[in-house]
Amino acid sequence: MNEQAVIVHFEYAADGVEDLFEIEERLEDAIEAAGVGEFDGNEIALDLSDGSLYMYGPDAEALFAVARPILEGAACFGEMRVVLQFGPPETDTPERVETLRGRGEAPSIRG
Question: Model confidence over 16-50: pLDDT tens digits?
Fold first, then answer.
C-alpha cells in the first residue's frame, strides 16, 4: 500500500521543462528498479520559478534514499525542501523535512 510520500519543493534553475522531464524519467526508472514505490508527477509554476515532485510508496525513507542522489545531482534544481510523510496525508501524520541543494543556481527558498 502506498501510504507514505516524499514531496520535493524546488527552486527551478532552467529555461525550459526539458531538464525537469529528464529528472522525472530518472526518478521514475530508479524508483521502479528499486521496487520502493512510484513517481506520481510534478507541478511547476508557469514562469518556471519553482515546483514540486510527488513520490509515493510503503516506505518514505526507502523512496528518499533512491531519490536523493538524483535530486542532489540535478543541475536544474537549486535549493529543495523535501517532506517525508510517514502515513496518509492527514493533519497528525508524522513527517520529517530535509533541505537539499541541487547543482542549479536558483535563489534559496525562503520560509
Answer: 999 999 999 999 999 999 999 999 999 999 999 99
Left, alpha or beta for 96 (phi > 0: left; psi -120 to 50: alpha)?
beta
**Spacing of C-alpha 62 from chain mean position:** 13
Instruction: Please state the separation of Cα 29 from the chain's center in Å.
Output: 14
- Integer CA distances (angstroms), 103 to 23, 92, 106, 109, 111, in order: 13, 34, 9, 14, 21
Burial of 95 (0-12, 13-18, 19+ CB in 10 A): middle
Q: Is the pTM of this model over 0.85?
A: yes
| DSSP for residue 90 | S
Question: Which residues neighbour 15 within 8 Å (Cβ) at sequence distance 6 or greater?
Answer: 48
- Tell how strand 4-12 and strand 77-85 pair up: antiparallel
- Do residues 67 and 96 touch, judged by C-beta distance below 8 A? no
